[in-house]
Amino acid sequence: MKVAVIGAGLMGSGIAQTCAQAGYEVKNIDVFEPAIEKAKVNIEKLFAKKVAKGSMTEAQKNEIFERMTYSSNMEDVRGAGIIIEAVPEKIELKKSVFKQLDKAADPETIIVSNTSGLSISEMAAATMRPHKVMGVHFFYPAPVMKLAELIRGIATDDDTYSKVRGFVISIKKTVVDAPEYPGFIVNRILVPMQNEAAFMVMEGCKPEDVDNAMKLGANHPMGPLELTDFVGIDVMLATMTGLYNGFHDSKYRPCPLLETMVKAGHLGRKTGQGFYKYD
Ligand code: CAA
Q: Gene3D superfamilies this protein is in (predicted)?
């Protein structure tokens, strides 16, 4: 079976890499060509490091590259058995992408979204195949993180669910069933913790104190602020805002410091400045 991944950003390119590493032929599609160029450079750098470190051979690297192709044309989803959408977290954009994919894809093709909290049912409703749509939420960095959350939309049928479940297990992820509510499981618990850490910085705590406390006192691999810089402050704020708007509950109130940082362009590692400075 061939796989198409829509979006060549951090998540899309990582998901495409994950599928190729598991043996699938993957087409990574992004209408914004510079995103494709950036994805190619990043993966080449990553693989060069792995080869130098000895965790991947030159032959394995070449084999994986052979299975990965890129395109800027959405029509190239034709022939794919499954399409994984990983475009930015904006519902109108996602709906428009789903509409285009529905027209371009073969009738039997399943379309899944990597959304971290938007409504699967709403995206499905933009297609003529809502029973063949569901959510598969990967975590960053997708090739490393072992989990994928499976989210059924209101119309997802059993056949689609079992095919997608089998596929996600075949790319070596452990699956959990998550409810179709904002944040699913992981982000509903993780992101309010990151938000709380941002409140503590707003109240005057040093980021390194908050992070060291959680790393050494709770055994987290990264502190909550380090993690926020890692995934992107804009991405984390959007997820928190999604919880707030989705549950209509003030307990999910986004930290105003995050909003200020996003307005200032302090988005974390990707812009060189977040809670910490990066070279
Ligand atoms: N992309 C692909 N692979 C990567 C990578 C990346 N960005 N970063 C690291 N790796 C790979 C390396 O290639 C290496 O692989 P090999 O062992 O095959 O060589 C392996 O990961 C370990 O790398 P390092 O030794 O450099 O790094 P580390 O041991 O410090 O681990 C980490 C790095 C895995 C990211 C670890 O710090 C970690 O688990 N952090 C927490 C990540 C986390 O919580 N993610 C969830 C974010 S929330 C989210 O994603 C939800 C959302 O919707 C926003």
A: N-(1-d-carboxylethyl)-l-norvaline Dehydrogenase, domain 2, NAD(P)-binding Rossmann-like Domain
